[in-house]
Amino acid sequence: MSSYETVAKTSDIREGRGKAFTVNGKRIAVFNVDNENFYALDNTCAHARGPLGRGRVRNGAVVCPVHSYAYDVTNGRCYTDDRLRVRSYEVIVEDDEIKVKC
């Protein structure tokens, strides 16, 4: 059964950036869109396995630092190649703690 796991404080991830964490054995990237909205995706780009957590968030999409493939942070859909997708995870913020369900 999946549950919410605390991964970081909101202040640990700069606005427009992401950070990777291991949660229940899965490598997950958490993104800070605007200091109020946080989202989580698999950390690995579906195109060339780049580290999405090192990408920058622009207009609601994280851009992979390897080949610039862009993914919607809310659902993992790839804008660059609509055949690709990465898994998304539920996120809640409670008392400045970011929690991911997986």
Account of the 3D structure:
It is a single chain. The chain is an all-beta fold and 102 residues long. The protein has one domain: 3-layer Sandwich (Rieske Iron-sulfur Protein). It has strands at residues 4-9, 17-23, 26-32, 38-42, 56-58, 61-63, 70-72, 88-94, 97-101. The strands form 2 sheets. It has a 6-stranded antiparallel sheet, with no helix packed on it. The chain has a 3-stranded antiparallel sheet with strand order 5-6-7, with no helix packed on it. A hairpin with a 2-residue loop joins strand 2 (17-23) and strand 3. 34% of the residues are buried. The model has no long low-confidence stretch (mean pLDDT 97).
Summarize this entry quickly.
Helices cover 0% and strands 45% of the residues. With 102 residues, the protein is mainly β.
Oligomeric nature of the chains:
single chain
CATH class category label = Mainly Beta
The number of E-state strands comes to: 9
The stretches of 5 or more residues where confidence is low (pLDDT under 50) are none
Structural class category: mainly beta
Keywords, separated by commas or semicolons:
single chain, 102 residues, mainly beta, Rieske Iron-sulfur Protein, 6-stranded antiparallel beta sheet, 3-stranded antiparallel beta sheet
Set down the secondary structure blueprint:
Elements: E1 4-9, E2 17-23, E3 26-32, E4 38-42, E5 56-58, E6 61-63, E7 70-72, E8 88-94, E9 97-101
Antiparallel strand pairs: 1-9, 2-3, 3-4, 4-8, 5-6, 6-7, 8-9
